[in-house]
Design goal:
Distance between the termini: 15 Å
CATH superfamily: Flavodoxin domain
Strand content: 15-25%
Shape: globular
CATH class: Alpha Beta
Low-confidence stretches: none
CATH architecture: 3-Layer(aba) Sandwich
Number of domains: 1
């Protein structure tokens, strides 16, 4: 069982709340027997566009290959102005060509995969983001099971705050461990048997 997390933090240096929450979730997923890889999108060259390969040093095709090889997809984003980050929006835009295949009567290549959503922020916006991402996943054939979201909205995650990584991990462990484990159980329960999507 393989999971790929697309981490859409905008921070290329320093402590990231969303990256830390993904590390927390990945640790629990590994305990459940899931191989995990996190792709920090800000570290890659992913130009704007709506095709799977925009050429000219585009690194999205390699990321897409890893997504297509995975059973589980985790979409992880901070809240910015009540919406997902620009990098998570870029993921949606770059996956648009797979939706085009569906419009042509062909499979998207994402059928049989399940997805979970991870969100961090200091104020409201999680429900809106979950709605956006769930709608897109539905449109390209990816299933989001019930209870497969992990949203941490905490004032210590505000842009102006400087919690330590240990502060974050203590918060996640004490308040969100049960939620994370339930999410993982749901993802595993809804992954089709191998013969069902080959």
């Amino acid at each position: 069982m393989k999971a790929t997390t697309l981490l859409a933090t905008l921070k290329n240096t320093g402590l990231s709340n969303t990256e830390t929450l993904c590390e927390f979730l990945a640790g629990r997923m590994k305990r459940a027997g899931i191989m995990c890889e996190t792709i920090k999108l800000v570290d890659y060259e992913i130009p704007a566009g709506t095709y799977s390969d925009m050429g000219g040093g585009d690194e999205w095709p390699g990321i897409l290959d890893k997504v297509l090889e995975s059973d589980i997809l985790i979409l992880a984003t901070p809240v910015w102005w009540s919406n997902q980050s620009s990098l998570m929006q870029r993921v949606i835009e770059r996956l648009d060509e797979l939706h085009d295949k569906l419009l042509e009567g062909k499979p998207s290549g994402l059928e049989g995969k399940v997805a979970g959503i991870v969100i961090t922020g200091d104020s409201d916006g999680a429900q809106h983001i979950i709605g956006n991402l769930s709608n897109f996943c539905n449109a390209v054939g990816v299933l989001i099971p019930p209870y497969a979201t992990l949203s941490v909205l905490w004032d210590r995650q505000a842009k102006s705050k400087t919690p330590s990584k240990n502060d974050l991990l203590r918060k996640y462990e004490s308040d969100y461990g049960e939620t994370a484990d339930r999410m993982i159980a749901q993802l595993l329960a809804y992954v089709p048997a191998p013969s069902a999507h080959r």
